Design the sequence.
């Protein structure tokens, strides 16, 4: 009789810190110690606290262990599973180093306490490779309910009532999208799941696919019934091997159970799903480019209209929904639209998953009701900024979004508010920056990305973004003028107005938002030829303070280009014409005699 | 699968197996599983408890282990925590005593006094 479940995270984050080896060792050790019939190891999807991986939870106690290594396995099995003594040193504590505040149960941690898990509710709780575990969590009950008790019109009305908006970026109301496609009375329609998650730093879709793939399949079948489609495609990036594998396992199991295929639940409804792998082009996250790619062509966008709901995949009406959007749907059906609409704000219902990254203590995945403020996400859930540094900005929406300065920390986050303050929801990447981040450099980083990823079909994007990047390069190397700032702004607005697809239309956002909120930083680069955060290398100067230098010669020995000279026991000097600004001298100086300006 | 009933059957069968992960037990049964407890035979007691709880679908009961509480000579020790009730400590437990404890105490609310520490010690 199984009395203990050990849930080990098998998401990409923990897998790359070797959690699969942990699973194998754990299983072997449990058998070795004669507990094979009492303790069960379950490999789950992502728990969210990726920075602390590999993580595991032991039920029924709910003990949460973090940073577990294969060497810890024997101790956990013999101490905890056999003798019932929690292995104290591995228990996750929120404030490391400080007075011992023990938080052995996952649900009690500050990280999880304020979260509300809807899209992620099964992630980290079930084995994603076992359809039976999904069914145990009411899986496929929503599909059963829809097929046996509702008409397609009722399903669409329910989705409209719930207020669910697309979680992929633009935030289009899902029910409305379905209605447009349903109105086209043609025999062949398609449901497409957009799992081409491309924003740097965003990985919520990957986590859903890895941790709860059946939820996506079930929602696609529901969508198919609502709009009258019997075929679905999941367009997923090939860079997500674990997600692809689990999706294919899930599809196989669902077919075996007759939950995909012909005559589902004996209602005469047919629906089947196939996966299509994306080759990693950012533009293929744009729906028309994605469709073109599924059709077997080079992934380039098309002008809209016609919208895919009227003329999409293979010229047929198609709805495209993002992974996270779909993951909400089975629960909306089961718990009702009122339940869903009770969460969130006036224009944005429900919850949103954010991938926390950058200068933040709890790097990982969080799901919060919309309307939560940035301050709550960063300080209460995210644990604040490490090393006691100061918050400077948060970047949302990836290369399509913008930077939010500290004055908006208390703005409730929803679709409308983010757009108003010059950013966007995007897919939910949230990168936190502290005062060591240069905003001009951030804008340059994202522009560098969009220049690489522009498909080249339309001129404003292909040439406009490159010119923009060149101007940013000019500024970060200290050759910019104030006139360049105005020119940049003009070019940004031109690209926004004229690019063909969302990639180009939103590409200038990182530049525009930093220009708006951090103009003084641009001006420092241009006027004073200085990078206030000390990031832009070409504007940096390393200098030795003569009164502090003891002449130990360490810096001269550390310098890779021989730019430092001086006699023993006498102050040294840096030859600025030779210096490559690597900072090796400053790192090694024991007397803090070297400063960065 | 051709019907909702079949789906419901799988759900019922599996629900039991994953219920362990929803720590919603209002009643906690804690078994002392330190070296002393194990040597005195706590493992079969623990297994008997887990088995009974699962077999009788007692969804509000969580069975967990703990370490040594210091009365090694009275092991195996089993403690029962119920909301708003004082904890009850059973000592020198055996698998044979388990059904009685489940029936009378866990389901009936009346501690099996003869197995408790107070009765055994006096």
Sequence:
């Amino acid at each position: 009789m199984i009395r203990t479940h050990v849930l080990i995270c098998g998401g990409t984050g923990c897998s790359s810190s070797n959690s699969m080896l942990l699973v194998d060792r754990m299983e072997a050790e449990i058998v070795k110690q004669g507990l094979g019939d009492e303790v069960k190891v379950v490999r789950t999807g992502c728990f969210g606290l990726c920075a602390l991986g590999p993580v595991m939870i032991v039920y029924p106690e709910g003990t949460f262990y973090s940073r577990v290594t294969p060497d810890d396995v024997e101790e956990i099995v013999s101490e905890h599973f056999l003798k019932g003594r929690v292995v104290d040193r591995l228990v996750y504590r929120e404030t490391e180093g400080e007075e011992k505040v023990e938080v052995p149960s996952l649900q009690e941690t500050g990280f999880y306490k304020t979260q509300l898990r809807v899209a992620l509710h099964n992630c980290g709780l079930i084995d994603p490779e076992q359809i039976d575990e999904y069914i145990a969590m009411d899986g496929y009950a929503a599909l059963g309910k829809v097929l046996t008790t509702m008409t397609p019109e009722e399903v669409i009305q329910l989705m409209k009532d719930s207020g669910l908006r697309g979680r992929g970026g633009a935030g289009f109301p899902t029910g409305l999208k379905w209605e447009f496609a349903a109105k086209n009375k043609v025999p062949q329609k398609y449901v497409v799941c957009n799992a081409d998650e491309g924003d740097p730093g965003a990985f919520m879709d990957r986590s859903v696919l890895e941790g709860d793939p059946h939820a996506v399949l079930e929602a696609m079948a529901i969508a198919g019934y609502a709009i009258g489609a019997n075929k679905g495609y999941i367009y997923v990036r090939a860079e997500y091997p674990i997600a692809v594998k689990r999706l294919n396992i899930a599809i196989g199991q669902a077919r075996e159970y007759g939950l995909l295929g012909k005559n589902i639940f004996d209602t005469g409804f047919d629906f089947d799903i196939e996966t299509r792998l994306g080759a990693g082009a950012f533009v293929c996250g744009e729906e028309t480019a994605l469709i073109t790619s599924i059709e077997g062509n080079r992934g380039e966008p098309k002008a809209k209209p016609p919208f895919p709901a009227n003329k999409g995949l293979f010229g047929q009406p198609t709805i495209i929904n993002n992974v996270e959007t779909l993951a909400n749907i089975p629960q909306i059906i089961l718990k009702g639209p009122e339940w869903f609409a009770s969460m969130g704000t006036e224009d944005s219902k429900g919850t949103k998953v954010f991938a926390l990254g950058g200068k933040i203590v709890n790097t990982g995945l969080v799901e919060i009701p919309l309307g939560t403020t940035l301050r709550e996400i960063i300080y209460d859930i995210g644990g604040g900024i490490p090393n006691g540094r100061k918050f400077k900005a948060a970047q949302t929406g990836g290369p399509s979004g913008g930077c939010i300065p500290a004055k908006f920390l208390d703005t409730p986050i929803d679709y409308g508010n983010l757009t108003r303050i010059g950013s966007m929801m995007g897919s939910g990447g949230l990168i936190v920056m502290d005062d060591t981040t240069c905003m001009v450099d951030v804008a340059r980083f994202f522009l560098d990305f969009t220049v690489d990823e522009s498909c080249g079909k339309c001129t404003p994007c292909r040439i406009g973004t490159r010119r923009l990047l060149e101007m940013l390069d000019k500024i970060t190397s200290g050759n910019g003028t104030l006139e360049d700032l105005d020119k940049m702004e003009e070019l940004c607005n031109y690209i926004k107005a004229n690019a063909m697809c969302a990639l180009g239309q939103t590409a200038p956002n990182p530049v525009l938002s930093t220009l708006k909120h951090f103009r003084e930083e641009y001006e420092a680069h241009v006027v004073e030829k200085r990078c206030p955060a000390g990031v832009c290398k070409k504007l940096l100067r390393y200098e030795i303070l003569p009164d502090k230098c003891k002449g130990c010669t360490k810096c001269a020995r550390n310098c890779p280009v021989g730019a430092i000279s001086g006699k023993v026991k006498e102050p040294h000097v840096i030859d600025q014409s030779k210096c490559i600004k690597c900072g090796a001298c400053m790192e090694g100086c024991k007397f803090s005699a070297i400063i960065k300006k | 699968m051709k019907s909702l009933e079949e789906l419901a059957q799988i759900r019922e069968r599996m629900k039991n197996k994953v219920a362990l992960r929803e720590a919603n037990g209002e009643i906690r049964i804690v078994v002392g599983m330190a070296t002393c407890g194990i040597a005195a035979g706590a493992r079969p007691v623990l297994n008997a408890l887990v088995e009974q709880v699962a077999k009788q679908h007692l969804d509000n009961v969580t069975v967990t282990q703990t370490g040594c509480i210091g009365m090694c000579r009275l092991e195996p020790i089993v403690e029962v925590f119920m909301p708003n009730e004082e904890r009850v400590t059973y000592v020198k437990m055996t698998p044979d005593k388990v059904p009685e404890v489940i029936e009378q105490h866990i389901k009936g609310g009346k501690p099996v006094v003869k197995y408790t520490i107070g009765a055994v010690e006096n």
Remarks:
- The CA atoms of residues 191 and 220 of chain A lie 7 Å apart.
- The longest strand of chain A covers residues 269-278.
